[in-house]
Amino acid sequence: MQRLECLRAIYGHLEKCLVVTIMGAVAAELQSLGHRTNFFYLQHAMGLASSTGLGLALCLPHQKVVVLDGDGSVLMNLGGLTTLARYRPANLVHVIFDNESLLSVGGFPTATSTGSDLAALARAAGIEGASTVRTVDEFTETFDAALHATELACVVAKVEAVGPKGYVTDLALLENRFQFQRHIDHLKWK
Amino acid sequence: MPVSQTNSQVVYAALKSCGIGLLSALPETWLVHLIRMAEDDPEMILVRLAKEEEGVGVSAGAYFAGVKSAMLMQNHGFLASINGIVSFAQLYRIPLLMVISYRGHFGERDPWQTQGGHSTEAVLRALGIRYAFLDDPASVARRIAEAQTLAYSSLHPVALLLTRELMWEEA
After folding, report:
1. How many CA atoms lie within 13 A of A118 on its CB side?
2. In chain A, where do the E strands start and end?
3. Residue B145 neighbours by CB distance under 10 Å
4. Tens of pLDDT along A94-115?
């Protein structure tokens, strides 16, 4: 299963969500499918995409928030899983693409390649429904259920360690940040 | 415990009058009353963290959502948050209001706090983060309001250092 296939499968479902991604391949691949102003790409600060999603979800309880995370980033903020579990916002879907690798810096293996199980870690943190999926169909089905669920969801998608040729896109970081903020402002006026 | 309940209340009231709707916090001795006040306040979203750096993301999310926030942490928590501050708040121009207990300075008896006390202001200066001291209850409200104003007008983190003078009622 490739991450890009997963993103393509759920792209249509992201239209009404606020989406926060990590840096690197996830950000570049989502943009390659078509940027939208409700997508925020956190192009550094590894580990904090899920914390950003938590802040959004707690402050906008009627708005679905989707975090597109990765194994390398989650491993840098394992404590964040316990914070998510503590507040368990029902409007947050935490997707973790696990390619067992720090792909964008040369593909060095992460600890998930030697057996660390992120879904099990999430469950142990208190996110009981956290699960691992290995096919695009399974991913789409689980994501769709998570989107309509009334509790915090965590989906670990095991994907191949392949990504785009480059990671820099023509969307400036600040342009993205102001677009995203303005998008949320407009939601409130609706 | 000689942490000043009265001055903690002054700080909490000042945060409230600035419209703070979310506080992230990781407990430390000087912050106990402030955290309890947030706990008892039904209008406050209190986010207890495992590590202070998470608070940068939580505050950024709150900011995007239009909710004013502050981060309550010890100076060692600030030191533990540097990458988040630099590669999120500064990179993306996020106005953080950081309320930091300034341990390890004059009067500190705990040896383990002293090196962090030595580095705190130097690191704030190195990062170009404007900071001021909360040392007098009479000026707390104005200083917090002004710090928040600067954070929002400059779209940059600003720090307030809670001092021993304000927080500790022991000679």
Report:
1. 30
2. 18-21, 39-41, 65-70, 92-98, 101-102, 108-109, 131-133, 153-158
3. 15
4. 999 999 999 888 889 999 999 9
- Residue A57 amino acid letter: A
Q: What's the mean pLDDT in A161-177? A: 94
Q: B101 exposed, middle or buried (CB, 10 Å; 0-12, 13-18, 19+)?
A: buried
- Contact: B88, A42; criterion CB under 8 Å: yes
Taking CB atoms within 8 Å and a gap of at least 24, the contacts of B34-43 are B34/B8, B34/B72, B35/B72, B37/B8, B37/B9, B37/B12, B38/B12, B38/B72, B41/B16
Find, among B52, B61, B67, the residue nearest to B22 by Cα.
B67
Annotate A133-174 with DSSP letters as a single string: E-SHHHHHHHHHHHHH-SS-EEEEEE--S---S----SS-HH
Indicate whether this complex's ipTM tops 0.90. yes
Please state, in angstroms and rounded to a whole number, the distance separating the CA atoms of residues B84 and B98. Answer: 13
- CB A114, CB A120: distance < 8 Å: no
Place of tokens 């040392």: B135
Q: How far apart are CA A38 and CA A176, in angstroms?
A: 9
In order of start, what are the domains of chain A with their CATH numbers? Answer: 3-188 (3.40.50.970)
| Average pLDDT of the segment spanning B100-105 | 97
Q: Is the pTM of this model over 0.95?
A: yes
> What's the rounded Cα separation, in Å, for the pair A44 and A28?
13
Structure tokens, A8: 């393509």
Please judge whether B93 and A174 are an interchain contact, meaning their C-beta atoms are less than 8 angstroms apart.
yes
Residues whose CB is less than 8 angstroms from the CB of residue B90 and which lie 6 or more positions away in sequence, other chains included: B127, B156, B157
Express each pLDDT in A27-62 by its tens digit. 999 999 999 999 999 999 999 999 999 999 999 999
Residues of A in contact with B87 (CB under 8 A): 44-45
Contact with chain B for residue A22, Cβ under 8 A: no
A7, HSE (Cβ side, Cα atoms, 13 Å) = 24
Q: Which residue of B has its CA nearest to A63?
A: B65
- What one-letter code names the amino acid at A122? A
Rounded Cα–Cα distance for residues B69 and B126 (Å): 24
Q: What is the DSSP letter of A124?
A: H
